[in-house]
Write a structure and sequence with these properties.
The protein is of the alpha/beta class. It folds into two domains: 207 residues, DHBP synthase (Alpha-Beta Complex), CATH 3.90.870; 94 residues, Threonylcarbamoyl-AMP synthase, C-terminal domain (Rossmann fold, 3-Layer(aba) Sandwich). It contains ten helices and 15 strands.
Length: 330
């Protein structure tokens, strides 16, 4: 199979729609990361996503729809607080989980009776979704457990020869996956942290809880259960108060000829004063936007990435730390 990276225009949208209707997958940009999309009504097409990625079949997918799509065709009930959140944050990096009507393939939710739905803000994603006018199941467009892709080139590096088309929408500015919010109860529950923080949700509708996956329990959202976001090199993660330990490991690696790089925010980069640094930036939006970009950059040049956590770990940084911890998980 010849994989093509195409600009988003009438020709590429027409090709993409034909591929989707024929049961194939298309890589699409969103404001968070690139997604690998297929027709959510087509079980074989959805199963093909799992095969392409090597994704565990108990890790549910998110359905993406355009801004004018009536989600009540797919879900049985939308609580009032979810309508308020949708009005404020959608289109945007917020996925909301509802009770499913069972209209989409059961492979999407991996046997759960719920459905996760997102309305991406990326203009190219909206053009694609409007053009195909179908709910599109789409996890990140990478090999399972590898660093999520934020450019079309990242997708090509992982999926060349496995998909026909990658729609090029430029770099994903958000940088980490959407917040996933369970909206099946009286109070919303954060299943996965992201750019729409628990604090923002509480400011909008009041109380919001946060869920922690228990041992042996089935994952209710992508990104809850398995090692994810990992570069193809060794990694170590140090707390922001363990800079000396990080520097000691860096020095030991360099002394024996191991190419080591320190991944950190700008404050730490200025403090460590070493040659090989992957600088994530200074503010939380910049750090989130650069996380996967720098992990991908790092695996190209380093044998060991030594990550140092930022001092701030609330708000958006909670989502960053979730991804960074999983990326460095043994």
């Amino acid at each position: 199979m010849q994989t093509s990276i195409l600009p988003i225009d009438e020709n590429s949208l027409k090709i993409s729609k034909q591929l989707i209707l024929s049961g194939k997958a298309v890589a699409i940009p969103t404001e968070t990361v690139y997604g690998l999309g297929a027709n959510a009504f087509d079980t074989r097409a959805v199963e093909r996503i799992f095969e392409i990625k090597g994704r565990p079949n108990d890790n549910p997918l998110i359905v993406h729809v355009h801004r004018d799509y009536d989600i009540q065709e797919l879900v049985s009930f939308v609580p009032e607080y979810a309508k308020i959140l949708a009005e404020k944050f959608l289109p945007g990096p917020l996925t909301m989980v509802y009770k499913s009507k069972g209209k989409v393939s059961p492979a999407v939710s991996c046997g759960l009776d719920t459905l996760a739905i997102r309305v991406p803000a990326h203009e190219g994603a909206q053009k694609f979704l409007k053009y195909v006018n179908l709910p599109i199941a789409a996890p990140s467009a990478n090999i399972s457990k590898h660093v999520s892709p934020v450019t079309a080139e990242h997708v090509f590096a992982d999926l060349n020869g496995k998909v026909d088309v990658i729609l090029d929408g430029g770099k994903s500015v958000g940088g980490i996956e959407s917040t996933v919010l369970d909206c099946t109860g009286e109070i919303p529950v954060v299943l996965r942290s992201g750019l729409i923080t628990r604090e923002l949700i509480e400011e909008t509708i009041g109380r919001c809880d946060e869920y922690v996956l228990k041992d042996g329990e089935k994952a209710r959202s992508p990104g809850m259960k398995y090692k994810h976001y990992s570069p193809n090199c060794s990694t170590e993660l140090f707390d922001c108060n363990e800079i000396e330990k990080a520097l000691e490991l860096y020095a030991n690696c360099i002394s024996v000829g191991i190419k080591a790089y320190i991944l950190c925010d700008d404050e730490t980069a200025r403090a460590v004063r070493v040659k090989n640094v992957l600088n994530l930036g200074s503010d939380e939006n910049e750090i989130a936007s650069n996380l996967y970009l720098k992990l991908r950059e790092g695996e190209e040049v380093a044998q060991m990435i030594i990550a140092v956590s930022p001092r701030k770990q609330s708000g958006i940084m909670k989502g960053v730390m979730n991804r960074l911890t999983k990326a460095c998980k043994k």
